[in-house]
Each structure stands twice: as structure tokens, then as C-alpha cells.
Amino acid sequence: MPETLIPPRLLPSGDSAITVEFSRNIDDAANRRVLALDRIITAEPIGGITETVPTYRSLLVHYDPVEISFDQLGEQLLARAARALPTTGKTRRWRIPVAYGGEHGIDLEEVAKTLQTTPEEIIARHVAGDYRVAMIGFTPGWSYLSGLEKFLHMPRRQDPRLLTPAGTISIGGVQTGVQCLAGPSGWHLLGRTAVRTYQLHRDPTFLLEPGDAISFTAVDAKTFAEQDRAAEAGEFVAELVTA
Amino acid sequence: MSKLVVTSIGPASSVQDGGRPGSQRYGLTPSGAMDRLALAAANTLVGNDPFAAAVEIGPFGATFTARGGAVRVGLSGAPRNADIGGRAVAFDSSATLAEGETLNLGFARGGSFSYLAIEHGIEGEPMFGSLAVNARAGLGSPYPRPLQSGDELETRPASGAAERRIDLPVMADAPIRVVFGPQDDEFAEESKRLFLDSEWKISATSDRMGFRLEGPVIRHLHGHNIVSDGTVNGSIQVPGVGQPIVLMPDRGTSGGYPKIATVITADFGRFAQMSAGRPFRFEAVTMAEAQAEARAFRDLVRSLPDRMRGMEDFGLNVEALQDANVAGQAVSAVDAETWQAAVP
């Protein structure tokens, strides 16, 4: 199936935003295009753009139609999207501690059973993954990661939970994610991290950026509790491995 | 320091301003006023910046009392019976509460949201450049939650300026205009026609995140799951049950349902004021028309200072006007329970 659309499709999202769509599917190559276009726009701004929102497969470009029309902006976006992908510069890599299973990951046992293996293997596989922040969305700091190995792909729950804890690390479909605030979720809960990807009055308020590389390390419940106190006091807890 | 004390207030009332765009890439919704023109009109009446923070009042009644000095306010948006200590006050005008006086506001008539702007603005600590309440993210100032009785809004004393009224264009009872997309290709031509040709009503289970629509079932071509992508104010997404949801200022920044169309900027406030249960239609316009209307809307906001008049020629028969206008209390688009349940 052809995945990445070159040139991308320009889809109107009302009179003040354009969706630049590189794929209809979750696709790493398309996501790299999205993030590349986002960086090019930051480096070479186009008058009238008010903000950009990268997602898995498209870049949503908000603009002021008083400053620039749909056609004018679309033309400039296509010109920038046509550029070759920049050779990857430095990528930030974060190591995020996770307390897996038990009260922190109430679906771990069930996931292991469904995939006909042990909770230990699920943890080992999830920790071994090399992930990238594909997008942040839905609620503040909710980071959707690409790079989940096929073995761990699972349909979402039939009945989404109305409330899942802050810091939940979960899997759903082909994705894994770091959830910041407590809220509804239909994903399978593997564990919790003390890391706050969004914390008011901390600099930076938002820890992760789309494009950041992520790996997880397993910690025990006692360490989670200590890290949770440190994070509440404003520490990152996540370890910046390369900047 | 003067202050306006909230002496009674219904749900779905909060401090709102132009919102906090700029961090949607981190999942932070912009929030901000449901009806930006009404916010701008209320602020203009008392000499504030058009998108300064004001009180967005939900469909139920509210009362405010001036303490520590006189407080001057501007009122716009959904009209209500209003008086200050028994003295009738008209909407789309300014008024001053002397120290100790109470402003009484009745239920919203013909709309849901009214705006009470305070001269010199509301004192608060901006977060991401805005005082707007976003209860889910714990944002907003002076209170990061909907307003409650006993809350205090601090401001500087009233200037004593002459009261003003403002002439606003009459809200047309016309269809709500949309542009198709971004995912209208997920729907058959027949479904798009059904969307345009049908009468819709806003469900009572609507809130500042989204307005649910009641009408015919809109079917998808390829199922209702798409890969999540970005949303805007006015995105009309169609979930599996086929009843569209129009995304409002407290929306999630991304969503995974196909979006058949988007309400145009110029009609968004009029849509936000649509009372629950009242039938309306959508009309598709071209991008060029929508953008021309967006420019005209910007010009309208800019023209607000020129639309102000003194009170002299106002024919102060406000009470008669109000009596003539009470056509039963409008049912609001905002359901109190839904809205409150969303607060963590």
C-alpha cells in the first residue's frame, strides 16, 4: 500500500487552518515528513501562520485569513514540503522510568494472557523499544509514541475507562503513549511514570517535543513513590540522555 | 481596589478571554470565549481591549455585588432581564454599580452566553498569556475553575465615565455556514446532501468541549475510525453513531473521527449561541466566501468603538422592551451536569 503522499494533500479545516496530509495511516515515514515540514516552517516562517500542530500523518497549520489566503498559503506549504528531508540533526533522547504492573499497571497480566506470554516478557519487550514522540495531543502532554514492536500491537479495549491515572504508560493499537493528566482512555495500562510531561510553573512547562526519542526503564514501586515526590517538587525525573 | 463579588451564579460560567492559542502542539486547548463578538462588544463598552478577560455567564441567572468602591461593567451577548438595585439595565450597554449595589441578571433569552466585562479588566495571573478557564488543565485566573458564589473579581475603581450603548448588527436567523473538509471524502455525496438538507438541533448534553447535534444519521464510507489529526473551533466530526459533534473552544487538540465540515469563523459565535432544541440548518460556502466573511468579521470587531452611542437617545423604556421580549425561557445548549462532571 502506498503510504506517504508526495506531494501531500491540502485539506481545508475551515477558513483559518489547513491540514497538510502526508498519509491516511500511521506511518513513520509520513510522520518524519510532518516533523520536517514543521521545522522548515519554524526556520523559514510564512507570514500569517499563527501556529502549527504536528500529528502522526499531517501538519495542521493555523493561519489568519486576513493576512494570507488558502491558495497563497497552500502554494507556499507545498513548496516547502517538496524539499528533501533534512539529514537528521541532533535528536533529544529521554529515558523515562516506569513502574510496571500491580496497581500501577492494572492491565499487564491481562495483556500477557492475551498475547500468551508472561508479564515479565511484556515488560522486557516494552523496555527494549526505541520510541519517538510522533505527536502530542488530546490533553496537555499526552504523548503518542511510534516504534511499538509488532508483538505488542493489540486492539483497544471494548469499553474505554472514564478515568485512568496521571502518568499512565499504556499500549493501544500500534501505539504506546505517555499520558500526563488523569482522564479517559481505551488503551491497556502497563504501568505509571512519575514524569510530568506537562507541569505548570516548571520551566519548561512541556517536557517533550514531537520528534524526541524515548526509551523506558523499569523501576519498582518504592522508586516510583520517591520519584513522584521529586517530580511534584518540579524535578524532571526523566533523564536526558542526549541533547 | 474595587471588586465584583459573585453573589450567585449558575454552572457553565467562567472567566474567558481571547484564549491561549500557541500551545496546541502540546495538547493544550486554546479555550476562550464561545462568542467572541459579544466578548469584544462587552469589553469595548467599558474601554477594554476587545479580547480582554470578562465573565462568560451560562444560561442561568447570576448576581454580582460591588465592594470596596464603584464598579463599571459592560453587558453583551445573550440578552437577559437585568437590573441594578431595581433600576433596569439594558443589554449591549454599560452600567455602574455603586459600592454595595447588586446587579441581577435573569435567565438567558434567545442564546446561551452573556458577557460581563469589567472596566479596567479583571486582575489575575495570566497563564500562557490568558486568564481563560480550562478546568481540565487546571488553568485560569483568578480561579482555575468555573465561577462559584463568593468568588471575588478584583479591579480598579470605576472611572465615572458616561454610560454607553453599542449598536450591533442583528443576528441573522440564517443557516450556519460551513466549508466542507478536511475529511468530507470519507462521506458519500448523498450523506453530504443529507447533512445540508436536514434540520438539526443541539442536544442538551453539550458543553464547552463540543455541541452534539440531533438529526438524521450521517453514514461514513469507510467506517468511523481515522488516524487522529488536528482539530479547530467548529470542526464537525462524525462519530460511529452518525450524530455529528461540533468542537468548541475547550475541544481536544486532536481527534480520531472523520470531520465532514467546519463552521466558518464569522458564524462560530452565532452557532455557539444557538439554543438547544431549536431547529437550524447548515449551508456550504466556498473557501473564498468563508475567508471574505472572516475578513468582514475582523472589520466588524474593529468597528466596535465607532458603533458606540451615548445613552441620551435611547428611549429608556427598557422594562417595556424586556417584557415584550420574554418569549419563554430559552433552553440552553449547555447542560449543567455534563459541564460540571468534566471538572476533575
Automatic annotation (TrEMBL), chain B:
Keyword Hydrolase: yes
Domain Carboxyltransferase: residue ranges: 25-300
Designated name of the protein: Biotin-dependent carboxyltransferase
Pfam families: CT_A_B
Alphabetically ordered keywords of this record: ATP-binding, Hydrolase, Nucleotide-binding
Spans annotated as Disordered: 1-27
SMART domains listed in its UniProt record: AHS2
Top-level taxon in the UniProt lineage: Bacteria
